[in-house]
Every structure is written in C-alpha cells, then in structure tokens.
C-alpha cells in the first residue's frame, strides 16, 4: 500500500518540472490508452494539472492524482530543455 511519504516524493519530483512540456499517456480502461502533449501546469497536495496542447477533444486541461502515477494508470515523459530527448518521470 502506498504511504504518504511515497506520494509526497512523487509530488516533489513533479514540482521540479512545473511549466515543462510533457507527453501524457493515460489508461482509460478496456485497452484504451490516450496519448497527449501538454504542459505540467499546477501541482496541488492531492492532484496535478496538465494543460493540453490540442483542445480538439473539448477540454484543455486534465487532472490526475499521484496514485495514478504510482499505479501506472498514467505515465509522464518530460522533455529535456531544448532537446528532442525525453526524460521519463514515471
């Protein structure tokens, strides 16, 4: 079971990447995985918010809990500064 310290470590690691471009992969169930590009916009005590680059789906922001990262329902890749290479956060 996830402890509060584990979720705090995830939150702190995301805080270091605020404002950076990311690739978000989210498991929507029944083998449906969405992949979107965006910017890590806000980090709150229980959730984080990603502003999506393409708002064609009717929404421009999504939020997920840190437990989604811990259980691998959501995966993030953060772009390194001005490089095409990516750094895997989770």
Automatic annotation (TrEMBL):
InterPro entries: Protein_Veg. It holds the Pfam family VEG. This is Veg family protein. It comes from Romboutsia faecis.
């Amino acid at each position: 079971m996830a402890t509060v310290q584990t979720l705090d470590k995830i939150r702190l690691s995301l805080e270091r990447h605020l404002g950076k471009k990311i690739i978000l992969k989210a498991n929507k169930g029944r083998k449906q995985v969405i992949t979107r590009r965006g910017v890590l916009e806000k980090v709150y005590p229980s959730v984080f918010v990603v502003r999506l680059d393409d708002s064609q789906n009717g929404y421009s922001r999504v939020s997920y809990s840190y437990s989604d990262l811990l259980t691998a329902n959501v995966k993030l890749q953060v772009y390194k500064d001005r490089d095409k290479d990516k750094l895997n956060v989770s």
